[in-house]
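ZP: hey, is the FE2/S2 (inorganic) cluster complex queued? I don't see it on the tracker
AM: it wasn't, my bad. submitting now with these inputs:
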Amino acid sequence: MSTWVPRVTPAAGCAGSGRELARFGDLAVLDAVLLGPVGLPGGAAPRSTLAPSPSGLVHRQAPVLPVDHVVDDLLPWFRARGLRVVCAVRGSTVGAVSDTLQRLRRSLDFATVVGVEIDLAAGREETRPAIGGLTSADPVGSWSADPQACLKLLAAARERLPRDLLLQAKLGGECPQPVAAARAAVGGGARALVLSGAVPALTADQFLVGPAVAPVTLGLVTTLRAAIAAGRVPDVPLVAVGGLHDRAGALAAHSAGAAGIQVGSGILSDPETLWRVHDALADAPPPTRDATAHRTGATTPDEAGDHDGH
Amino acid sequence: MSTWVPRVTPAAGCAGSGRELARFGDLAVLDAVLLGPVGLPGGAAPRSTLAPSPSGLVHRQAPVLPVDHVVDDLLPWFRARGLRVVCAVRGSTVGAVSDTLQRLRRSLDFATVVGVEIDLAAGREETRPAIGGLTSADPVGSWSADPQACLKLLAAARERLPRDLLLQAKLGGECPQPVAAARAAVGGGARALVLSGAVPALTADQFLVGPAVAPVTLGLVTTLRAAIAAGRVPDVPLVAVGGLHDRAGALAAHSAGAAGIQVGSGILSDPETLWRVHDALADAPPPTRDATAHRTGATTPDEAGDHDGH
Amino acid sequence: MSTTQLRRREGEVVANRPLGAYRQLSVVLPALGVPARPGQFVVAPPARADQVLPRTWWVSGEHTEAGFGSTLELVVPDTGVLPAAGEGLALTGPVGRGFGLPTTPVTAVVAAHGVAGAAGRWLGERLRTAGCTVHLVSVADDPEQHVDLVRARRGADGVHLTDLRGSEDTVAALAGSTGASVLYAVGPVDLSATVARVAAALAVVSQVTGLEAGASGLCGYGLCGTCDLPLVTGRRRGTRVRPCVDGPVLRGDLVDWAGHP
Amino acid sequence: MSTTQLRRREGEVVANRPLGAYRQLSVVLPALGVPARPGQFVVAPPARADQVLPRTWWVSGEHTEAGFGSTLELVVPDTGVLPAAGEGLALTGPVGRGFGLPTTPVTAVVAAHGVAGAAGRWLGERLRTAGCTVHLVSVADDPEQHVDLVRARRGADGVHLTDLRGSEDTVAALAGSTGASVLYAVGPVDLSATVARVAAALAVVSQVTGLEAGASGLCGYGLCGTCDLPLVTGRRRGTRVRPCVDGPVLRGDLVDWAGHP
Ligand SMILES: Cc1cc2nc3c(=O)[nH]c(=O)nc-3n(C[C@H](O)[C@H](O)[C@H](O)COP(=O)(O)OP(=O)(O)OC[C@H]3O[C@@H](n4cnc5c(N)ncnc54)[C@H](O)[C@@H]3O)c2cc1C
Ligand SMILES: Cc1cc2nc3c(=O)[nH]c(=O)nc-3n(C[C@H](O)[C@H](O)[C@H](O)COP(=O)(O)OP(=O)(O)OC[C@H]3O[C@@H](n4cnc5c(N)ncnc54)[C@H](O)[C@@H]3O)c2cc1C
Ligand SMILES: Cc1cc2nc3c(=O)[nH]c(=O)nc-3n(C[C@H](O)[C@H](O)[C@H](O)COP(=O)(O)O)c2cc1C
Ligand SMILES: Cc1cc2nc3c(=O)[nH]c(=O)nc-3n(C[C@H](O)[C@H](O)[C@H](O)COP(=O)(O)O)c2cc1C
Ligand code: FES
Ligand code: FES
């Protein structure tokens, strides 16, 4: 069975709580709304920051939407409107991600969640014994820098989720060896890869995004498609994100082999960009390569029968 | 003694043979002209290609200027005009780079060369035994992906060059661990680091450059300055390249700790950009950090006595 | 938060005039459903092809004529990439919650910074119409950057000039001497924090902007999270407020201003 | 290569008119030292803030009036970001070596592609003035994209329309039937390769452009190396020629056209 991925969604960190975005267009026309990053509160900077650069933005990772807020306030809001949600989850330890997923899955509204995305560009912390038998947590770079860590994280996530729920791993310009990390993530249980052209910039924890990085995004899609064709990475659908803000960009990514597209800072430029990109892909032919395996919407969760949520 | 680096030069691959650039301004006002990439002919694509992208360009590495052409035609031209040259050298094996340097050094006009730059973003080939006792050369990624290879290459280059000639190593967005590669390059004998915000894009061997990548360049300078301050990389001057095409960009890189700046695609936009950036830095104060160690022009090769060329 | 549609609408610039260090744009839009209020802002598309973020501008006046549409007055930074009179300009808004007016005539202090001075002046006029006594504090980093003091003086009981550093003392002295029962602030978050602190010290009400229209690095659409501020009470969503959606005008005593200025 | 200074000069657009699928710009510059020639091009700054590369445009006419300056005619793609009449436009050039004219009246075939048709037409007029018989071949991918056929017909002994695919047959047949002793090509490198091959087969002279003005991905300044072509003889610098400096007009028999089209 081919894996379903939503064709066009907002990118993590660019859609508020989802409700703000609803002011600019009908969320129901989208295959799904991406909500997040969701996680355990604390840790990150108090707020996102944005520094404009030529045809781009440098962003600092936004604080997470606390999972309790998501469960108590947001999932019910989406469910009441019949909207499908992909939850983007961020955590710096396997425990934090597992815990977040556990709480999401216990939500009475989990049926509205049609997918989970795990952010591998996020910083990872390693706990080690410290003075007095206590443990301390040290930052050790991004998840995606360590394929073994990617595998473990995805395996832990897979375990917490219904067997047939879409689980996608997001990695990008921060990743030293995207093919190795992607292989590990799929080995761990990811059923789709989100490839982001965001590249580290300015200082640690900051990323360059926007139209400026579109060629980086296309490069990642091309590289991973080639790795899949060569059998170096299992055959999963690819979702492209990074600078794909117009019809031409979306179609270029699509024909390079992306089954889905996310729109990030393009939504900040003009929220209606999301719907324009959606419309551009709505009648695009299936991706040129491995078309049968990745036809988007080939089997939607509904057709496949609702997953065994909560 | 602090190492001298030229304050503003063209970037490799963006100044033709130097002579074309002379049509747009007086090369003699520059501390030095960067000439290159210089190497052994063959190997690369027949010509450079440029794909425009938002606030950027995706370039494919240009073919080298054959070292014999440089020795026979170009160095004499520069020398006749009293111009100083930094030769950017590219090769895919230690042998190719050593050979190129050897031939340059044997040139009767080698006195005009005040520095050599080694391109670590270039593709590296490893020779291995093949059928029938012959060896075959296989591409194994960039030099900068392997700190050990960087060390060997720079050590070989250092050996071919006069003891006091500026030897700088160029690496950038393609490099998975810039601090490790930089440490290795300096360990091998580099006396300055050229940090380039160029990032891999579109397909193998292509790089995104231009104003779009300025935040990546600044990020590399900041990271390496911090590594130097922490003693993780020996204290050498940094030269920044990538999207630094106006006064503001040049001063930002300068105050992030770059002693020198190279202008690449900005020269293609408008060749006079080179002189504008030069003028912007001409009366800038020395870099804010480690100012004493890196004051540009503190000792020029002339003041230090001409090196023992050829 | 309501999910009322908030669409960009095509407007026409009918005037683009210099106003001191700034430009004053008049833009005609299809008639607004509800009148605009001081404290609201508009969002305009990015100025240039190489820019990603839209621009946010304070609204500094509005009038609606039946059958003609609504004219917004916008006093904006003179960035040199503004549409000329006769050109089209798409705008989203006026966005957000404006300043609330007291129901009884009281004495009010309105502090506004730089380009936001025009919105502060408009608020002052509204307060005077409502019978209040109004003292304006125009805050600017540079004497050139006070907005239209002539008109400001006409519409207020007093106008006081200071810079960001001196604003705390000026507002505190003025609030004390006039017995003001409400302090307003329009402009950067640092000014809002200052005014909220003065209000707290004097035990009076404050209404302040939680976001600085015109600053760089903002989306204005509620999507990027850059404008988020922590709340004093922990009850609302993640103890944060998103001023471009839930504001920009906030009660000064609700926000945790730690770190500002 | 000479190192004559090649500086951008401020010009003024005095006309910007539609011309079929294209726009015709007239730009006044300070008087040129030497008259412009067909085959030369100009370099204009990038069109928009998010673009890095400059634009290259064929020159399709020139006249110099004492005390007034030189007016360049430029027929350019209608990209929608062109300066209006009255606006300034900085230009570098005319750049490069133009077409050489025969010293005796001969029969010539001039093939030009799309927007380059205007430069081809100008070359044809020059050849006719020199007493030559001139047959124009206008090559276009789409019937809309032939330039100003009325004027072309006035200035030539025959005008033949074709597309890139049909250009080889058209030029070969025409050259054969008219006994042309020189073939010219203006436009994409693929057209130049085709014309050079036809000339070689017929053992006649060809002069062709080694770079396509108006194409994307070019600097036009001799700095990027994108336009490089390999030479047949191995004597010149790295056996390559850089058309935007050493051309754009090249002798067709000097270039190794392998890979084109
Ligand atoms: C100095 C002063 C004195 C007043 N005296 C009286 C009085 O005597 N009697 C009386 O009935 N009312 C009084 N009010 C309340 C005032 O009448 C109301 O603000 C007025 O009714 C305006 O209502 P509105 O519909 O215009 O504003 P609304 O849109 O209802 O909002 C009112 C104001 O409350 C603030 N606010 C609302 N929600 C939030 C939020 N989520 N976070 C932060 N801030 C929020 C905003 O600043 C907003 O401008 C007083 C207000 C002030 C400022
Ligand atoms: C069909 C034809 C017939 C001719 N018949 C005669 C004749 O009978 N007698 C005679 O004296 N001359 C003849 N010529 C040469 C002609 O006179 C000259 O081209 C003319 O003098 C133009 O000189 P110029 O100064 O205008 O061109 P120049 O600038 O001197 O260049 C001449 C042409 O040569 C080519 N060229 C020059 N350098 C290069 C290079 N590095 N790489 C590639 N191409 C290069 C270019 O196409 C250029 O347009 C003939 C030329 C042609 C095309
Ligand atoms: C303000 C902002 C906040 C973001 N926060 C996150 C985040 O928390 N997690 C994440 O995976 N990506 C985050 N991103 C990155 C986007 O999801 C997306 O990958 C990136 O912006 C590239 O897409 P774009 O070029 O369309 O913006 C953020 C981007 C922006 C602009
Ligand atoms: C056409 C072109 C060719 C280039 N060729 C080389 C090269 O051969 N070797 C190299 O080290 N860098 C090469 N570069 C990269 C530049 O030297 C520079 O590092 C990069 O363009 C970033 O600077 P910029 O943003 O100012 O262009 C090339 C760049 C361009 C635009
Ligand atoms: S400015 Fe972007 S969320 Fe408020
Ligand atoms: S177009 Fe750049 S060198 Fe010719």
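AM: back. Helices of chain D lie at 117-129, 149-154, 164-178, 189-202, 243-246.
ZP: great, adding it to the tracker
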